[in-house]
Amino acid sequence: MTEEIIYQCIIGEFGIKDAFDAIDVLFNLGYMSVSCAEKNKRWFVEILNDTPISETSIKAALKHFKYSTLKQKKLENVDWLKKCFENFKPITVGSFYIYGPHLRKNAIPVNKMPIEIAAATAFGTGEHPTTHNCLRACETFFDYRKHKTALDIGCGSCILSIALAKLGARDVTACDNDPEAVRVSLENVVINKVAHRISIFQNEACEFANKTYDFVVANILAEPLISISECVVKSLADNGILVLSGFTSDDNSVLQKYLSLGLTLKYRYDLKDWTTLVFEKKSI
Description:
Helices cover 28% and strands 34% of the residues. The chain is an alpha/beta fold. The strands form three sheets. A seven-stranded mixed sheet has the order 10-9-8-11-12-14-13, with helices on both faces.
């Protein structure tokens, strides 16, 4: 994109949980870019847009959040895409090396599996602790010899599906109720050369439960994980693995719900007050 006038809004300070939750809320307002960054252990959210940003709309959207400042200014002659990428540094999670398209020409670290994800309009660049933990869980518990089919519920940018394909999964189904996430996912699987292994669709009412999968991952939020829990368990094959994330460590509601449905907890990841749970559906 050519240089143009871009409007910037900086919102801070947030706690880490509120910063990432605020991004989810602000994405829905349709801005060109929404991202967060840490500076001196303080978290800030940045919005970039090609038209003036309504502070009234932001305050209304963030009325349940605690933050201290909201500053806006006009950036003359800015390459907004370059500006958007400035905060997206390459990330290493286990054997995965995650980077933006602006780093495409850089050398990939030895013995790492590359995943190219643009910091765009769908959640999932590897920065959030829940995505980080899900990537670790996928690498640890996915076994291509046993897990013939995989499902990614609420795929966002499709980063977890791409990771599973890189780990050897040959039949991955990815779904999201957001049409923009589906659009971004379709682009990302092509960029990462795994489109032949991943099927993507817009999920409306648990259509994914029409078949069973050996490995299921869902990185969404506690409330929807609980509301669709019976469908999720139905979609999990006997002896299958289920990875759930998107909730804070002090919230045991998801754990209790899925245990009540007969699953066995295998492992728990905790990182920066966020939790990821790994379950198994043992055959009777």
